[in-house]
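REQUEST FORM: STRUCTURE PREDICTION
Request ID: SP-0412
Submitted by: Lab K.M.
Chain count: 1
Length (residues): 367
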Amino acid sequence: MKIIQLIQKPQLRGAEIFACQLSNHLVDQGHEVIVITIFKGDSKLPFKGRIINMNRPLSKRFFDFKGWKQFNLIMKETQPDIIQLNAADTLKFAVSSKILYHWKAPLIFRNANKMGDFITSKLKWHLNNFYLSRVAYVISVSRECEKDFVKTFSFPQEKIRTVEIGVEDQILGEIPKDLTDIYKRGPVITHIGGFVPEKNHEGLINIIKSCYKNFPDIQLLLLSKGKLEKTVKTKVKDLGLESNVHFLGYRSDVLDILSHSRVFVLPSFIEGLPAVILEAMYCKTPVVAYNVGGIGEVVIQDQTGWLVEKDDELLFQNFLEKILSAGDRDLPQVFNAKKMISKYFMNDKIAERFTQCYYKVLEESGE
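STATUS: Completed
RESULT:
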């Protein structure tokens, strides 16, 4: 089978990283996979096969006739059996090209979020519904996101299936050398997520400020980038936390950082099922998170982690301080979480479930 994975751009963000990891496992299964990026980016993607960078300008994300034509030429050259669309921009881009140029490959949309949280107007609903009516199948990241997707778009249940995100099996390394001094200062709390409103960095800083009173040596690592980074840095400075909060940007050693962190935190307002939570569990790192999207399907209160209802900053703080007070990470919840990840969420097993979906689509399309 020849598969195209369409992603937004070369960046070390969850959706792009997982698409590349999945592609590597599909190649190991014997399939031919090509990763195509739409927009310009400067990161090296973790895919061992062929990558086509279209380098389209982000300013053309809504109307890009030249880009749609360029994609059509790639379709003619590669003749794929299946195209997987990873994120909303890839959906709009591929559907627009297919409508204009009538190429045949069926489209599978990877639904990685609770879509209903983003549909805030009738116009957004109609636009998304128009594009989704052109896809052959949807693979959702969690059962909660699947349920929401069906409800939001009255989407046929037989055309959607949940296949969660997964984790790569790898040897965990030492503390990154450039972070050694930070780890020596005190217990490290790690957060990974783009600086966008739904990740709630400002709420996290409020929680850290409250914890600071009892744990003045805590160190918060913020990984990723985004449009609100400057705003968050200003808040950190205003609260006098500059010595405790560290902005690390994108990193390729995420699991090494997680494996030496005391706790991983995710107080997001909107999520699907983020890989970073599964990666933290794989690294035997305690997890505290808000109960949004599909997070409650893996973070089970007091069994595999600590789950907090959205906006309850006080309870989030209490759980965080409870873990910090324990003095180490040898907690029963941590071992339960690691066992769950090893059994259900390794990428080699996840890739097999994606393949089953691809064959189902090809069979039903008569290919």
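NOTES: The longest helix spans residues 347-365.
Reviewed by: T.R.
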